[in-house]
Amino acid sequence: MITHDVRVHPSADNLPRTEQLAWKLAELAVDPVEVSGEVTDMVINRVIDNAAVATASLVRTPPAAARAQALRHPYSPGATVFGVDAGTRVSPEWAAWANGVAVRELDYHDTFLAAEYSHPGDNIPPIVAVAQHLAAARGLTGAQLVRGIATGYEIQVDLVRAISLHKHKIDHVAHLGPAAAAGIGTLLGLDAETIFQAIGQALHTTTATRQSRKGEISSWKAYAPAFAGKVAVEAVDRAMRGQTSPTPIYEGEDGVIAWLLDGPDAAYQVALPGPGEAKTAILDTYTKEHSAEYQAQALIDLARRVGTEHPYLRDADNVESIVLHTSHHTHHVIGSGANDPQKYDPDASRETLDHSIPYILAVALQDGAWHHVDSYAPERAARPDTVELWRKITTAEDPAWTSRYHSTDPAEKAFGGRLEVTLADGGRIVEEIAVADAHPLGARPFAREQYVHKFRTLADGVLAPDEIDRFLDVAQRLPELGPDDLGGLTVVAPAGYLDTVTTPEGIF
After folding, report:
1. d(CA 355, CA 333)
2. Does 77 sit behind a cis peptide bond, omega within 30 degrees of 0 on the bond before it?
3. How confident is the model at residue 210 (pLDDT cuts 50, 70, 90)?
4. Which parts of the sequence belong to the MmgE/PrpD N-terminal domain (predicted)?
5. Where in the chain is the domain with CATH 1.10.4100.10?
6. Residues spanned by CATH 3.30.1330.120 within the chain?
7. 2-284 belongs to which homologous superfamily?
8. What gap in Å lies between CA 169 and CA 116, rounded to an integer?
């Protein structure tokens, strides 16, 4: 890896393009280095993972609304939309939009956490959409698609390691826009100049505040990364037509760093693979076994275990208080340190509840399980004994857990915490967990078998059995797919299934 020093420069410096971060990212995107077998296998896993969670969300209202919008933009050759017959094609930016919302809706796909937060699987919908649209015209193959996805993951993860957005209340999709644009550039074999311009445009148009993940969390949480993917497609299209971007987008005196991040005196060290060095960042990311914010993954596993070993804790009368000692992020974003009353509101939205660790701990402890639908049902959230237990749960920041959260050592890095239960009779129970069971270092690490099982589980009752088998066959042959096969990277719902949800008419 080569570490690049990134800081703000006044316009008078006339910073050479080749010294700008956006150019370094573009150079990374055009590097013809081979994709390893291990990375290829993980790309396949994440394509399956995305399809699994998208399938489970097909008749939820945000994906349904996004799908309705996309279907108003038919295009040939175009790209597919999850749930819809593969012969129905829409403009690729709208396919990226609809499929991105479906993937993101349940907060159930992959994650990477470091200086910033991210869901790198959000790169897949826009890159696949462009691949399907241009497959015939450019002779694109599954192997080229794998290369593009590997680039998207590499760039987003490398930016997430180095540059904190949330510290300045900027939403994490500001790293996604440039990553997806670069991934599309790799897919299409574009030159560094074109990718550089697309990265700048994508970054400039995907910076927004984190209010989408604060307070009363709305359906926009699912749309935010889909918007970034849609914008990335459009940015690449403009750049291919010779249109330029604000420059320097990161380092300029009126650029992103100077005014949205650490300010004019900021300095970042961004490590990127050098020429000929493999893009392996996807191997450092991890998926979810449970449909909830990633910091909740290990804690759901902990609560399930504690509730099973001590079933009397499921009765709120036996509990005086429960305190989770955890990292700064878990405490301040999904814990009581956020100071969001909505995190204790039985009438809160699903999007809010999946960002409330007090709620999640209460339900997982009582049920000994977690379900992507049942655990968020309004009647489940309003159950009086759950509400009573829920309001006895708080979080506290522990510097040791914060340090482990930010560790660069994979063996030390952790996203868990220590649960301290004070019983009504004065007794205490203390249990802790470092990483989720499904984490690569967890009790039951996810491998291909688990990704396939997750897809089959979430597709059961949604897709026909032969459609489940068809998709898994296509996805697992990804590196071998030819241009005519890329359209098979979608799922098709049975006739009438999508009609079970309707959305109001809009402009389109």
Report:
1. 8
2. yes
3. confident
4. 19-268
5. 2-284
6. 295-433
7. 2-methylcitrate dehydratase PrpD (1.10.4100.10)
8. 11
Contact 472, 64 (CB under 8 A): no
Instruction: Write out pLDDT tens, residues 317-341.
Output: 999 999 999 999 899 989 999 999 9
Contact predicate 84/498, CB 8 Å: yes
DSSP string, 114-158: SSSEE-GGGGHHHHHHHHHHHHHHHT--HHHHHHHHHHHHHHHHH
Cα separation, 296 vs 212, in Å, equals 19
What is the tens place of the pLDDT at every residue in 389-412?
Answer: 999 999 999 999 999 998 888 889
Mean pLDDT of 256-260: 94
Confirm if 127 and 99 have CB atoms less than 8 A apart.
no
Please give the CATH topology (third level) of the domain spanning 295-433: 60s Ribosomal Protein L30; Chain: A; (3.30.1330)
Q: What H or E segment, with its residue span, contains residue 75? A: strand 74-79
* Distance in angstroms between the alpha carbons of the first and the last residue of the chain: 47
Q: What is the pTM of this model?
A: 0.90
Whether residue 282 contacts residue 43, with contact meaning beta carbons closer than 8 Å, is answered with yes
- Collapsing DSSP to helix, strand or coil, 279 comes out as coil
Cα(292)–Cα(301) distance, integer angstroms: 12
